[in-house]
Amino acid sequence: VRITAANTLRIAVDDFEFKSEQFMPYLERSFSLLFHLLQQVSECDTKMQVLHVLSFVIERVGSQIRPYVSSLVQYLPMLWEESAEHNMLRCAIITTLIHLVQGVGPLCMNLFPFLLPVIQFSTDVTQPPHVYLMEDGVDLWHVTLQCATSVTPELLQLFNNMPALLELGSETLRVCFSIVDSYVLLGPAEFLQTYSGMLHAILSDMMTDLRPEGITHICRVVENMFRVFPVDAPQLFPDLLSHVFKAILDGEELPQVMSMYLVLVARVMLQNNAYFFTFLSSLAPKLGQQPGEVLGTLLDIWMERLDCISQPERRKLSALALASLLVSTEKVIVERFNAIVNCCVEVLHDVCREDYTDILLMTENDPQPEDEMEMEEDRRRRQLSIKDPVHSVSLRDFVRAKLQECQQTHGQDGFQNLMDTIDCEIQEQLQRFIK
């Protein structure tokens, strides 16, 4: 009867119209009774059923479960040990832990003595049970990183399981890339100091083997590293950058892949200009060309394929990077002055309101939507975005400043000659933006 009642509760909680606030008067009593039922039943299948109901309740009430979970937290380690021969029950325990971590949020770090060994075991491909536990294990690993407030040595050490998971190339690959991303956000300095060499070797190899979706995931992870460490990170990935540059120069056909390649190039050009040109100089001889030839081809393809970049943020990033070249006296760049300005004007139309203010600018004072399900990682992402040039630099102001620098560099007559190469209509639009 109690098991039937538990399953009935699950059906009620799983209803589309379920409202957690209406359930709150019954939460403590329901959770307590479910926990006692979990302790008292002996059959493996029955324990799984009860855990399933507990997971549903935790998922639906979210952070409101925090006052009531201590007894379950103390019991789960014992249940884990008892279920060594029952992989499906261990799967149910891991699923419960996923919802529990989401419910307790940053307090999940108190669970690390139990949580991290479970993640370590379930994602270790040398352990036979990994075939049952791995998929749920990587989900638990990811949500733990999302909710943690800092990286610990033990959490960092878990990453030693990752190379084998990436090499498997299974259905968990997408979550594995998200785990790498979460480490970069949670403990960037410690993580890259420990694992950058390993990451460079693995990701560079994978770039040649994966489908387009996998390549774009790798590029997003690498872009995040470039955002966190704009000076140091690009220098940690020379082989991967070589692959990206060569693919662009070869005219990569797939728009979503080309878009991400251009994002990486734009990040390096905008935020680490010195390394960009150093890297270009080292790459050119390998291609049998002069650096100026490589740069000219790169810029031509980039501006021609700008429309394959659909996201306003990434289009603005390209425009900022291209605009940063306007101050150069290099012949290969000066010859493309009008094309660069055309691209900048095109993107200004995308990112400016009617009053010409930049819609992508963010500050600490911007109102944030109240979301009780917001994780610590969401806050980390927001802080990173606030510092990102895409969200901290006005494209209009940036283009204006670079044109003024260009005028000072070339002199009034030289600058006017450059401006005369621009179509009259584009000039008028430009003046409206930068006046």
Taking all Cα atoms into account, the compactness measure Rg is 27 Å
Spans with pLDDT under 50 lasting ≥5 residues? Answer: none
Rough outline: elongated
- Sketch the major β-sheet: none
Concise summary:
The protein is mainly alpha-helical and 435 residues long. Helix content is 71%, strand content 0%. The longest helix is centred in the C-terminal third of the chain and has 25 residues, at 395-419.
Features:
435 residues; mainly alpha; 0% strand; elongated
Overview of the molecule:
With 435 residues, the chain is mainly alpha-helical. Helices cover 71% and strands 0% of the residues. The longest helix has 25 residues, at 395-419. The mean pLDDT is 92.
List the helices and strands and how they pair.
Layout: H1 2-13, H2 20-40, H3 44-61, H4 70-82, H5 87-104, H6 112-122, H7 130-147, H8 153-157, H9 162-168, H10 173-186, H11 188-207, H12 212-228, H13 238-249, H14 255-271, H15 273-283, H16 291-304, H17 312-323, H18 331-334, H19 337-351, H20 376-387, H21 389-392, H22 395-419, H23 424-434
Helix pairs in contact: 1-3, 2-3, 3-5, 5-7, 6-7, 7-10, 10-11, 10-12, 11-12, 11-13, 12-14, 13-14, 14-15, 14-17, 17-19, 17-22, 19-22, 19-23
